[in-house]
């Protein structure tokens, strides 16, 4: 039996006929620009928002919306927002003891996994944003859910706390075996974590595939842009670069990521260009090359090129 089944869910102007299936233990990620319907879909799945049409099922039991039940939400589904929802003027240990279904040993292991075992004696007004978010997550896990919904959990965190929370979420999915759905604007949060990505645009599901396929074979320019910089290459230029024009699904244009291109001092004159920009981005350089009819971005690990230099563009192996 599927863990989660969403069938034809629509909601106002936010969602239109969304259907998806999630297996037990599977990690799904929702991607899309602001207003694409990601958070709306997550709240419908959680039973916190009433759909206009369609149904949500968790392990064969229909998830009822807030108009159908006294207390919104569904047993077995936990929803974590980005707003650090903790009671004020309580100590962390008191908050976590509420509705705790774990033994002392299991609770201790969970607190260590969430990196909060040293915070149990603090009050909520003595916590940083990252600490509050990890405690809010642990509060959902002391009564282990079958499905954990994570709505932009990293959006209000600095880089250090974001990396800690990213590690915690990875540990939860792997060690506790809890199925998760994650929403994030950062492609690195999604690509390195998800088993499958669902891309939403204007409330519609436009692509569902593995992270690698989404990244390397996006269905359109919108999807390509969600996951980083890209080159939109027409069939003629693709042939010059040594790549067959077109793709298996019939698209005429190709999306080629900067790291899939190479630069050399010799090559096919048809793919000859001139360096017009060199940008240092920490671990790599981004080289902008002007060809006769287009410009390309190329990623390089080191830089020995200067503006105005003639180069030849090819495809990486």
What would you note in describing this structure?
There is one protein chain. This protein has 317 residues and is an alpha+beta fold. It has 2 domains: 4-216, P-loop containing nucleotide triphosphate hydrolases (Rossmann fold, 3-Layer(aba) Sandwich); 229-315, Beta Barrel (OB fold (Dihydrolipoamide Acetyltransferase, E2P)), CATH 2.40.50.140. It is 25% helix and 29% strand. It has helices at 38-46, 92-97, 104-113, 129-141, 159-175, 187-191, 211-216, 221-226, 235-240; strands at residues 4-11, 15-22, 27-31, 53-58, 61-62, 77-80, 147-151, 179-183, 196-201, 204-209, 231-233, 254-256, 261-264, 272-280, 285-290, 295-300, 310-315. It has a 6-stranded mixed beta sheet with strand order 6-7-8-3-9-10, sandwiched between helices. It has a 5-stranded antiparallel beta sheet with strand order 13-17-14-15-16, with no helix packed on it. A hairpin with a 4-residue loop joins strand 14 and strand 15. It starts with a strand and ends with a strand. Residues 244-250 have low confidence and may be disordered.
